[in-house]
C-alpha cells in the first residue's frame, strides 16, 4: 500500500500522560506513543475514547534522558 502521509513516521515506544481533554487539566490517563512524525503521532489509549476534533495536552517521557515534553494537539481520527 502506498504511503500517503506528508512526513515519514518513526516507530517508538514512549510512556505519556493525557493531561488535558477539553477544558479539564488533570491526569486523565496514562498511555503510550507508538510512532511519531512532524505532523502527528499514534496514541494507544485503553480506557477512554476521544472523538476527532478533541483538544488534548500530553506529557511525553523520553526514558533515555529522563526528560519530559509537554505538547498540545487535536485528535485527527480514532479507531473505535
How is the secondary structure organized here?
Elements: E1 10-21, E2 24-36, E3 41-44, E4 55-62, E5 67-74
What are the main properties of this structure?
mainly beta; PilZ_domain; 5-stranded antiparallel beta sheet
Short description:
The protein is mostly beta strands. It has no helices and five strands.
Task: Write a structural description.
The structure is a single chain. With 80 residues, the chain is mainly β. It has one domain. 0% of the residues lie in helices and 56% in strands. It has no helices and 5 strands. It has a 5-stranded antiparallel beta sheet with strand order 3-2-1-4-5, with no helix packed on it. The model has no long low-confidence stretch (mean pLDDT 83).
Helix proportion: under 10%
| Strand arrangement across the biggest beta sheet | 3-2-1-4-5
SSE pattern, N- to C-terminal: EEEEE
| Fraction in beta strands | over 45%
Low-confidence spans: pLDDT under 50, at least 5 residues? Answer: none
Distance between the termini: 22 Å
Our count of domains comes out at 1
How many extended strands? Answer: 5
Alpha-beta classification? mainly beta
Could you say which overall geometry the principal axes of the C-alpha atoms support? globular
Protein name: PilZ domain-containing protein
GO molecular function: cyclic-di-GMP binding
Domain PilZ: 3-79
Organism: marine sediment metagenome
